């Protein structure tokens, strides 16, 4: 028998069975660390039976899972985006809040705070009017490689005249 080395976080939700006195019983939720979902149900039943006097026969478990799904919406410069993220196990979101631009820490985010932001064109394609009609080699449209090739041609051209 393999002994589990890591504990996983499970969210267990349960309630009492509906009775004529209480048609919609309240839900009880508990975060439990256990090796699997079967073992996670036992501490839930134990603690709920002590706190709310709910036996195994008079109550049921509505949900026992370890996946957490979060749907969020954020506004960018171009439009509004909907995003859905799923988290597992011990990943816990402690706090979500909107912060001011002055409190931002990361330089990757700070660069987008300026109003006159410009983006480079990494893949520049030449228009038809600037192309030559017949060329001996295939055209390279990446800007970085074009500048490297231009610099090499200038260096070889200068050496050729010396």
UniProtKB/TrEMBL annotation:
GO terms for biological process: translation. It comes from the Eukaryota. GO terms for cellular component: ribonucleoprotein complex; ribosome. Keywords: Ribonucleoprotein, Ribosomal protein. SUPFAM superfamilies: RplX-like. Pfam families: Ribosomal_L18A (PF01775). The keyword Ribonucleoprotein applies. Gene3D superfamilies: 3.10.20.10. Residues 9-91 form the Large ribosomal subunit protein eL20 domain. GO terms for molecular function: structural constituent of ribosome. Component of the large ribosomal subunit. Binds IPO9 with high affinity. HAMAP family: Ribosomal_eL20. Belongs to the eukaryotic ribosomal protein eL20 family. This is 60S ribosomal protein L18a. It comes from Colobus angolensis palliatus (Peters' Angolan colobus). The lineage of its organism: Eukaryota, Metazoa, Chordata, Craniata, Vertebrata.
């Amino acid at each position: 028998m393999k002994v589990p080395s890591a504990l996983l976080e499970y969210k267990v939700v349960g309630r009492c069975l509906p009775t004529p006195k209480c048609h919609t019983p309240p839900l009880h939720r508990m975060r439990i660390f256990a090796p699997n979902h079967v073992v996670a149900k036992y501490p839930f039943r134990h603690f709920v039976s002590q706190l709310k006097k709910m036996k195994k026969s008079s109550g049921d478990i509505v949900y026992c899972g370890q996946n957490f799904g979060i749907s969020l919406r954020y506004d960018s410069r171009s439009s509004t985006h909907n995003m859905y993220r799923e988290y597992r196990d011990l990943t816990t979101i402690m706090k979500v809040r909107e912060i001011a631009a002055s409190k931002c820490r990361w330089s990757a985010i700070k660069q987008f705070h300026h109003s006159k932001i410009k983006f480079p064109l990494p893949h520049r394609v030449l228009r038809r009017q600037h192309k030559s009609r017949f060329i001996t080699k295939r055209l390279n449209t990446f800007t970085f490689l074009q500048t490297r090739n231009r610099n090499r041609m200038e260096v070889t051209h200068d050496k050729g005249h010396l």
